[in-house]
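Deliverable D2.4 — example input (structure tokens):
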């Protein structure tokens, strides 16, 4: 005769049953979410050519090419490697071929954007910005579909994702989604009023939070539309759009924000690294009205300052080393006093580093990556030739990088903290 009291037996049974339910849930094969008819029918376009053209533009606005057009390869043929903390995934083939979207319907395509599911119900990995694209309206999805469907079908060699176990499994996708996926209410058409349109574009097609939201160790965020700043897998930092000392533009004039979004530059502010690619691949193609709507929204974001540690001071030898390197390697372009060098028309050829947010923002990651990899400034009206900066990745050791970054962050009125060689080493290895 068992002497165990009844409550323990009950708890044991409940525990067993719930574990069983979880295991069955995890292993249950994925099946496509049924597509319910929208309150307004799928927009049957009266003018197919205009719909395709709209889709072409929306694809530029969503920067689909960044993850789906291989370098030098056919448009949207897929196979673009995307590094994640869990391995490499490849953007899929979006042309109407067997390995691409051949045989898909407009509903299948909508399911992929809205629910992040492939045609057979396979849950797409979150390297696809599912928390953003779930906000895309059905009409915009249909226009995108019309555009992709008429592309030449290409059949590139298919590439399987290289994700470490268990991250590539459907069970892992289910857990991730249960924690971090926030599907949006289905919208029939995109809002037109400027305020709502700015929000629609920033949250949805523009997928700004795909980079600018803070992320945890599972690359998820409990507030996936946050713009409070996040680290990217390649080592860059997408600074907070809520803090004017980081990347916030709340205090800027409207036309300044428009210029920054359209050309990647306003006054001494230059978009660099991944943001320069967003401007080049996407934002410069956006219609004026949409840029204005985004600028409005960014200027209205609530201000929330990034917490900062008290600035670190540097030992004398590091400061002297930084001063020497700066004078030898950097001053010829950026100026003895970090004042930069402007063209006759007032546009900057070499950006000032005195007063630069890229230099003084909380994370030294972007200044470090600029110095490591160099780069070209974006072309803009009145700036015909791109101005370049050489990479210093082979030139400067960690201690020298720390020294020169410390110099930038503490001279000419800049009041950010010193950077240590250990910090440099950590920031370098968190990237490549
Ligand atoms: C930041 C990178 C990124 C951007 C931007 C992006 N995608 Fe993707 N997309 C991916 C990745 C990665 C996959 C593959 C996910 C998987 O297989 O788990 C994918 C898969 C897809 C799929 C599913 C393909 C299939 O075979 O199941 C569709 C459809 C798609 N993307 C459409 C788009 C469209 C339309 C845009 C632009 C509006 C876009 N994507 C922009 C990364 C991106
Ligand atoms: C691929 C990742 C990525 C995406 C997507 C992205 N950003 Fe950024 N953004 C960055 C990084 C990295 C920086 C820091 C580099 C810099 O300052 O140019 C940045 C900087 C910025 C800045 C400050 C620029 C300056 O010079 O002060 C603004 C404003 C900004 N982003 C707005 C946006 C908006 C709006 C969107 C969506 C339309 C967006 N970003 C999408 C990565 C991204
Ligand atoms: C040949 C001229 C040249 C030299 C030498 C040079 N730079 Fe630059 N630097 C540039 C240009 C041009 C840019 C803008 C590049 C871009 O937008 O990617 C830039 C950008 C930067 C940025 C990013 C500024 C911002 O607003 O985002 C930093 C930080 C920087 N340089 C630091 C340095 C340091 C430190 C050195 C010396 C070790 C150095 N540079 C040497 C031309 C130069």
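Example output (designed residues):
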């Amino acid at each position: 005769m068992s002497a165990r009291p009844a409550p323990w037996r009950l708890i044991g049974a409940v525990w067993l049953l719930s574990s069983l339910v979880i295991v069955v849930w995890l292993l249950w094969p994925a099946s496509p979410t049924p597509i319910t008819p929208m309150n307004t029918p799928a927009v049957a376009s009266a003018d197919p050519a205009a719909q395709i053209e709209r889709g072409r533009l929306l694809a530029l606005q969503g920067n689909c090419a960044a993850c789906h057009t291989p370098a030098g390869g056919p448009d949207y043929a897929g196979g673009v490697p995307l590094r994640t903390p869990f391995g490499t995934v490849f953007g899929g083939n979006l042309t109407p071929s067997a390995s691409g979207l051949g045989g898909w319907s407009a509903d299948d395509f909508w399911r992929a954007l809205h629910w992040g599911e492939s045609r057979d119900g396979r849950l797409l990995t979150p390297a696809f910005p599912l928390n953003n694209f779930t906000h895309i309206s059905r009409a915009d999805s249909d226009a995108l579909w019309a555009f992709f469907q008429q592309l030449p079908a290409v059949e590139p060699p298919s590439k399987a994702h290289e994700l470490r176990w268990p991250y590539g499994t459907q069970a892992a996708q289910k857990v991730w989604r249960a924690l971090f996926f926030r599907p949006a209410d289905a919208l029939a058409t995109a809002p037109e009023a400027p305020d709502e349109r700015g929000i629609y574009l920033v949250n949805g097609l523009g997928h700004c939070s795909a980079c600018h939201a803070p992320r945890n160790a599972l690359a998820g965020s409990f507030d996936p539309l946050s713009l409070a700043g996040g680290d990217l897998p390649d080592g860059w930092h997408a600074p907070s759009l809520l803090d004017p000392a980081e990347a916030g533009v709340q205090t800027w004039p409207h036309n300044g924000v428009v210029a920054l979004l359209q050309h990647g530059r306003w006054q001494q502010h230059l978009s660099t690294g991944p943001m320069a690619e967003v401007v080049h691949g996407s934002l410069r193609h956006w219609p004026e009205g949409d840029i204005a709507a985004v600028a409005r929204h960014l200027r209205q974001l609530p201000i929330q300052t990034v917490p900062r540690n008290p600035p670190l001071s540097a030992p004398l030898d590091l400061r002297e080393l930084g001063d020497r390197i700066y004078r030898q390697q950097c001053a010829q372009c950026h100026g003895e006093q970090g004042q930069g060098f402007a063209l006759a028309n007032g546009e900057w050829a070499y950006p000032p580093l005195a007063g630069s947010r890229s230099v003084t923002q909380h994370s030294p990651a972007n200044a470090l990556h600029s110095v490591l990899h160099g780069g070209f400034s974006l072309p803009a009206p009145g700036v015909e030739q791109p101005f370049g900066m050489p990479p210093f990745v082979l030139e400067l050791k960690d201690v020298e990088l720390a020294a020169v970054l410390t110099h930038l962050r503490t001279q000419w009125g800049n009041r950010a903290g010193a950077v240590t060689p250990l910090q440099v080493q950590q920031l370098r290895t968190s990237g490549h």
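The chain has a mean pLDDT of 94.
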